[in-house]
Amino acid sequence: MLPQTRGLSSVAAAGACALAVTVLVSAQQQPTFRRSADVIAVDVQVVDRAGQPVTDLTPESFEVTIDGKRRRVISADLVDVRSGTPTAAVAAVPDAALPPDAPPPSGAPPGRIIVLAVDASNFPVGGLRAHLMAARTFIERLPPQDLVGLFAYPTGPKIDPSTDRADVIRALDHIVGQRESLTVGIEHHLSWSQLIDLSNLFETVGPPPCNAGEPLPLEVQGICPSVPAGGDSSDCQLCVDRLVKDTKAQVMTIEGQSLASIGMLRSLLANLADVAGRKTVVFVSGGVVQSDRPGGRPDIGDTGIETGRIAAQSNISLYTLFVDSPADAAYTAEARRAVYTGTSVTRDRRLLEQWLDRFSGSAGGSLMRISTGAGELAFDRVLAEMSAYYLLAVEALPTDRDGVAREMKVKVAERNVEVRARKWVTVPKPNATLRSPTPLPGNTTTTTLVRRTTPVHPPTAELGDVESAYFSGNYDRVRTLLARPDRIESLIRDFRVADRPWPDTPQRASALALEIALAGIRHESRATRDEAVRFLAETHAYVAMPSGGDDNRLECLWYRAEIASLEGVPQPEATTPFVTRAVQRCPNDGRLALARAVIAEQAWPAGPAPGRGRPPTVTNDVLARSITDLYASAIAMPEAATEARVRAAWFQYRLGRVDAARALLDGVSESPVAPHVLYFAGLVGGAVFRASGQIDAAASILRNTVARSEGAQSAQVALMGVLLEQGKSEEAEALATAVQTRTNPPFDPWWLYRLGDYIVYPSLIDQLRAAVR
User: Which end of the chain is more exposed for a tag (fewer CB within 10 A), N or C?
Assistant: First the structure.
């Protein structure tokens, strides 16, 4: 068993890999440059159209340019893994130019490092099984000297490369698809192309009005019903309103999940930069959705090009296997409401593929599409292509040694061949300190993990201050640093780019990320708020535990703190996707079920005064039934039953349904509940009994509530109104005088009633901080 350090195994939950692998190959096995000049080592694959390596090239066959300037190719050594023969030096520079003691290349071909990376985020639960079987066959066919590792994410096995294939093969059985299914609270399951077109429509034009006799925009037709001349527009407008909500929810979720997955992949590629030897990453993905409209959403920026550059600078040979399945997705139950055509399926395929195309192209790698079967042909081609490569010795100039990434292009004079070579090269500065491998005695075919003294992407000084204060428990300092509105957006950006802190305790990193994101959501700048929402959605991929239900108490506490804060914004359209996700992950959490109802009620439009009802429109009636049903679900959970009854009663009272409100209050229990819930119950009970004509009962309830709250203002004002109806004007006037002259009135919980659990948010944050220490 390899030691557990900050490598692939130690960061499975966080998804941020800090892999540092040293291939221990004896000196006589390494390809030897026969040269007397300073050179840059460049490995290049040249294959024909069938994927077979071309093996008869000379240095003159290659043309290498760096920053657009041609460089001399001093030698081209062919490394042929298939033959098992020594590395051959092909047409090297004339012997007269070599130092007299330059040894010829000798020994068996060195072992390669091959990492199978699997992005499970875009596959359904069983959608990877056949492809992983093909990957197993691929691994079994690799030469025995190769070192093979596995990196499955967002969650899944992560195994450091070694010559022992058994662990990797066993781990393949534990990789499952993790595509999110937003079935809770989502009515319209849209195709990728529909989602992008609708998002663009709503962002640029706004929700379309449903006018009788007028056609809806093309993007909405077929989803919402048109209104005939003289018809009622209520159903149409309700559909449009829900479509806007669902579109925003799905876009936000996709952006967050995509950025999280890309961050995990980027971390793997960056940390492979320290690995000595030939490195190949075989990347299996179901695609990454990105808008094909300029400035459209989902928007994940230039992450494809940036991530590809990291792979190129880490000297990785990349194969991306795109499992093309949008056509199959069109017939799933989840997509039953989506409108698919041949055109949309073709476009959906491109939407999933375009990020992978940019990523692979920027890395100088190869993108292969798996449209049918399990991918056996693609894995066969990868096996063939990587079986031989050229190691070029390219002339280096003194100006190259500045540690700056330079664009590099490699071409060959042959026709009908493909060249695979990295597109960026970085030559270390002359005084750069490079890590030296430490061989294990008597073992030349394994790996050793090396603990990093500094992360690949260390945090900025400002983010480092926040992390240090959080780690030490100096939360006053954390609050001070996060209270600087001009720095929140940069903190979010830095946290995303830097290595996740505390790799052995990813929950702590997620808790800090939550506090940073929530600070941004309250920012006055819309751009900062949007970035904070995207960052919060991204953080969900890191906090999620592999198992759900009752085994993820810490995760559910994280969600409680998140939702409690978001209830206090309040922005129900933006908050709905988050509470939907929380309820999915923690279906037995009564507080989250209640929060879902509260957030739905926050979207209830302003209207007539409480107790007087609302216009009997179809839209209001449907929304009212939906909110009522959500409260009923929360009432069924003991943890939230009492408060859910009180809130449901208040909602029915606002609808003018006094009898329904009375029936709900009859089941309210005084113990055990929080004091502010009893206060809410007293105020709601007083209003309901007063509306039903039971003035004396209302007065009794409100007197008890005033006494319990030590004179909170809302209860006193409510009692004044009842006293006036009883004809007790003098007592009401005395109470009014007391309210007006009191110099230190107590906190009135009713002021936060509409904000749900926001009233206990500080307590939840304290619990979360204690739980992750």
Answer: N
